[in-house]
């Protein structure tokens, strides 16, 4: 075989192989070749650039040598022997030449596949995001991976993917057709965002992605019964509907204040779109949060048709630091209040009858309560009359037995300068006077056929729940509140409940609810006319409701499960979710039976004092268990800390409250807000900032009169007058007496 003939054939092979790859068939060709590759070559699935180059040269050398040796065979003395010799050598040379051809074909095929793969890989990159068949990763400007998302419901067929401008899109996965895309958005120089959408085109099939913790600290999501800062996931939780629930009654559910928003110490934020039938789960071992979209076995409903395609869509944004990316997300995606509630509530405590008298409240013990507030020299922004002041739950007037002369009582309170707020809720028990009227007028949430009210069980009995998607219901309910305000001079209302967990399992509403938590949103809107002093305990997309949002009831205990230690993590969490006018709940907890750390009727004395001290540094204070139920020393401590709140805390809070209207920035802030490069600051859950210049470190452990305190970098002055300017630093076993709380002011 002549060398030039071999070269011609090889050139043809190269053209065929590379041309075949350009037409998209080299992967199948490679699989066909693979079965015939000898030895080591058959086991290799990927060659480096150097390997491929070496094997191309090797194949070419063998071919050239074979051709040269054939050309050098000439006549010898013995023609027959020479002929036989030439035959044997010729077979060997032809064999060598054919091996060279095979190696060259393999090398060229691999090279073509490798270069085409590089081109495809380049097509699956957009800015700082790399897309793989089973997920994607995002890097920051320094090239560090800051975000990982895995696809759990399927893997993408990368051959179905394409790139057009800043959009990567794919239309197939390993289980069928999908509508998938990632779009890059540059909202500003220091922020880069990615819109992600995966829609299953097979009806009934869920979509699930798993967000990796990626070694960072995460914050946000929702209020929990056991609250940690940063988030702490325990065990494995299958995705459940991410809807508002009463976590006092259902302690493993999501809370009454929630938003589909999370924030990472890697300066990454993620916001799930409102349209998604969103379910949340987690895996402690894998350190992932599971985001799922589905309609099957779910309270989310399709607004059209019995079947639909589940869609999981969200936006991931990366910034230069955690504080700046959060500020961007709040300004871009969160509602904001349009006014600041009454300044008096920021300055002076609210006094509630709830924990002390509960359902036994009456005209007599209410007036005694007010007389003691005045006797001990406390200020009062307003008095909350809580629980069973009506004859039945669902009535909107006073029980004539408990309150024989409500009109005279209100006149007396007005003369004493006491404003009154009344407790209200979304239920009408079946024995209330308004139950029948509500049935006749169609004011209630109904059972699925729409003909009868759907009865629900709540903590005070069985009844119907008002349908706040119905304009007629909203008008009727608001008219009842206005009548109370007009008849008695009521200042405002404390709106209790409102979680979607109180909706029946199957129900229908006037306006169909795609997302059950929309019910919570509609309920919070009832507070708008009374927002000067109104109070809510639920929130979903409700940041623009300009009233106070209260934490769920607390047990009178020290720990993280609805106890004293949970206060700071919960306040920080709902602040990050955009709710800034916060009531931390009643001082000392709610004193519920069997949920109180004390052998007495009252909460533990030390617990009460430490709770009081912490509350003095919150946006507002709320008493229900009065300090005079203990002793004179507790009364004096309460007097001192209510005065400190009024003079030191309230002016700062009110200044920050005015800024909230424009920025949405938290009033109560985590330490990392001013120390974004400080790893220690990301993990501290027992200290907080008011603004940027007042840091608070309460004692939260029983029997302690000292604590470790972390000071971020800067110059700080303690409440004792000490200066510290060598931070960041720990103050180990810093002494804090029982009647003190440690706080530090930024020193200019």
TrEMBL record:
<keyword id="KW-0539">Nucleus</keyword>
<keyword id="KW-1133">Transmembrane helix</keyword>
<protein>
    <recommendedName>
        <fullName>Myogenesis-regulating glycosidase</fullName>
    </recommendedName>
</protein>
<feature type="transmembrane region" description="Helical">
    <location>
        <begin position="93"/>
        <end position="116"/>
    </location>
</feature>
<dbReference type="Pfam" id="PF01055">
    <property type="entry name" value="Glyco_hydro_31_2nd"/>
</dbReference>
<keyword id="KW-0326">Glycosidase</keyword>
<dbReference type="GO" id="GO:0048741">
    <property type="term" value="P:skeletal muscle fiber development"/>
</dbReference>
<dbReference type="GO" id="GO:0031965">
    <property type="term" value="C:nuclear membrane"/>
</dbReference>
<keyword id="KW-0325">Glycoprotein</keyword>
<dbReference type="InterPro" id="IPR013780">
    <property type="entry name" value="Glyco_hydro_b"/>
</dbReference>
<dbReference type="GO" id="GO:0004553">
    <property type="term" value="F:hydrolase activity, hydrolyzing O-glycosyl compounds"/>
</dbReference>
<dbReference type="GO" id="GO:0005789">
    <property type="term" value="C:endoplasmic reticulum membrane"/>
</dbReference>
<keyword id="KW-0378">Hydrolase</keyword>
<comment type="similarity">
    <text>Belongs to the glycosyl hydrolase 31 family.</text>
</comment>
<keyword id="KW-0812">Transmembrane</keyword>
<keyword id="KW-0256">Endoplasmic reticulum</keyword>
<dbReference type="GO" id="GO:0005975">
    <property type="term" value="P:carbohydrate metabolic process"/>
</dbReference>
<dbReference type="InterPro" id="IPR050985">
    <property type="entry name" value="Alpha-glycosidase_related"/>
</dbReference>
<dbReference type="Pfam" id="PF21365">
    <property type="entry name" value="Glyco_hydro_31_3rd"/>
</dbReference>
<dbReference type="InterPro" id="IPR048395">
    <property type="entry name" value="Glyco_hydro_31_C"/>
</dbReference>
<comment type="subunit">
    <text>Interacts with IGF2; this interaction is required for IGF2 secretion.</text>
</comment>
<comment type="function">
    <text>Putative glycosidase. Promotes myogenesis by activating AKT signaling through the maturation and secretion of IGF2.</text>
</comment>
<dbReference type="InterPro" id="IPR017853">
    <property type="entry name" value="GH"/>
</dbReference>
<keyword id="KW-0472">Membrane</keyword>
<feature type="domain" description="Glycoside hydrolase family 31 TIM barrel">
    <location>
        <begin position="349"/>
        <end position="504"/>
    </location>
</feature>
<dbReference type="InterPro" id="IPR000322">
    <property type="entry name" value="Glyco_hydro_31_TIM"/>
</dbReference>
<feature type="domain" description="Glycosyl hydrolase family 31 C-terminal">
    <location>
        <begin position="664"/>
        <end position="745"/>
    </location>
</feature>
<keyword id="KW-0735">Signal-anchor</keyword>
